[in-house]
Specification:
Two copies of one chain form a homodimer.
Chain A (H helix, E strand, L loop, with lengths): L2 H21 L5 H7 L4 H7 L3 H10 L3 H12 L4 H16 L5 H8 L8 H20 L9 H18 L3 H15 L5
Helix pairs in contact in A: 1-2, 1-4, 5-6, 5-8, 6-8, 6-9, 6-10, 7-9, 8-9, 9-10
Chain A binds a DNA duplex through helix 1, helix 2 and helix 3.
Chain lengths: 185, 185
DNA sequence: GCACGAAACGGAGGAAGTCTCCGTATACTG
DNA sequence: CAGTATACGGAGACTTCCTCCGTTTCGTGC
C-alpha cells in the first residue's frame, strides 16, 4: 500500500470513530470525508460501503468483549448475577454508538454481512458464558447462543431507538434471564 | 371537507396501504403520491409526516387486536399457552409491514408520536391479558405492560430486520414467557 | 346559471445524502 | 529522473424529502 493511501486510511478511521460517536452510525459519509480532509471518492475506495467502515471502526473495541466474558466465567457469581453482569456489558458495548444495536443485531447470523466477524466474536463470547452455566445445568437447553444474542440485542435495539434508561434495560434483561435459567427463583 | 379533497384522501390511503405492504413502511412518499395520481404537495397537505400516514393506514387493522386479546383472556388456556398465543398474535400484527415493528415499538410510550394512540391500543390490550394472569398470581409483579410490549416488540424488531423465521420468534418468545411467569415449568 | 372567494391541487425545485467516474496528481521502481 | 501503477478529489448524476406558490376547482349566494 502506498504511503499516502495508508495515511488517509488511518485518518478516515480516526475521524469516522469520532463522527460515529457524535452523531451515530447513520452520520453522513460525505461529512466524514470532508472532516478527514479527503474526497468522497477516496473514502469510498477505502471503504466501499458504510458497513465496511463501521466494521473497521468497531474492530478496536471488540477485543474487550472477550475479556469481559472471561471475567464473568471466572467470577463464580451466582447464575442470575453472572448473566445480568454479562448481558449488561453486552448491551453497553453494542450501544456505544447510536444505531449500533440495530446494525449489529441485524447482521447477527448473517454470514454475508461485512460486520459478520464482529458478530461472531460477540456470539462466541456469549457462548462461553452460556456454556459455563449450561455445564452446571443452570440453563434451559432449547435455545442456542445465537438466539440469545438476538434476544439481548433486541433489548438493546429498542433501548437505543427509544432512548430508554438503564433501569428499563435492566428490568427487561431480568425477564430474559429468568426465562433462560432452569430453576425457580 | 371538499369533495375532491375527500376523494384524494381516500385514494392516498388506499394506495399507501398497498405500497407499504409491498415495499415496507420506508417506501418513498413521492411514489405513493404518483401512484395515487396526486402531487406531492397534496399528499403532504393531507398527511404532513410519514407517521401521520402510517397512523391512518394502521388504524383499520388495529381493531382486531382488542378482539384477539379478549379471546385469549376468555379462552381458559394455561398461562404459558395463553401468553404464547397472545404474543404470537402481537408480533404477527405489528410485523404486517416491513419496518412496522421498529416504528411501533419505537413510539411505544412516547406520547408525542403521531402513532401513540395505536401504541396505547396495543398496550391496553396487552394489559388486559397480563392482568388476567396477574390476578391469578401467575405473573411476576415487577414489570408493567409497557415494558412487556417493548420486550415482545423487540423480538419482532429483530425478526423483521433479520428476516427470521417463525421458529426463531417462537423460541425467543418462549424465553420471554418463562421469564414473565412466576412458577416453575 | 354564474360569479366569486375559499379551498385544494400539483409539480417545479431546493436541500441533503449516496455513490461513481475520470482527469489529475503523487509515490515508488529501476 | 523518467515512467508507470496507484491513489486522489470533487463535480455531478441520482434518489428521496418536503415546500412554495401560481393555477384550478368546488360550493355557495345571488
Amino acid at each position: 500500500m502506498r504511503a499516502d493511501a495508508l495515511k488517509n486510511h488511518e485518518k478516515i478511521l480516526e475521524v469516522a470513530a469520532q463522527v460515529f460517536s457524535e452523531r451515530g452510525l447513520d452520520a453522513p459519509i460525505d461529512d466524514i470525508a470532508t472532516r478527514a480532509g479527503v474526497g468522497a471518492g477516496t473514502l469510498y475506495r477505502h471503504f466501499p460501503t458504510r458497513d465496511d467502515l463501521i466494521d473497521a471502526v468497531v474492530k478496536s473495541w471488540m477485543n474487550q468483549v472477550d475479556a469481559t466474558a472471561d471475567d464473568v466465567v471466572a467470577s463464580d457469581l451466582p447464575p442470575r448475577e453472572a448473566l445480568l453482569s454479562w448481558f449488561d456489558a453486552y448491551v453497553t458495548r453494542i450501544s456505544r454508538n447510536k444505531g449500533g444495536p440495530a446494525k449489529i443485531t441485524g447482521a447477527m447470523g448473517n454470514a454475508d454481512s461485512p460486520i459478520y466477524t464482529k458478530c461472531e466474536t460477540l456470539r462466541a463470547a456469549n457462548e462461553r458464558v452460556l456454556g459455563s452455566l449450561r455445564e452446571r445445568g443452570e440453563l434451559r437447553s432449547d435455545i442456542d447462543s445465537l438466539e440469545v444474542c438476538r434476544l439481548v440485542g433486541a433489548v438493546a435495539v429498542v433501548a437505543d431507538q427509544g432512548g430508554l434508561p438503564p433501569e428499563s434495560v435492566r428490568s427487561m434483561l431480568n425477564v430474559v434471564i429468568d426465562g433462560l435459567l432452569n430453576s425457580p427463583s
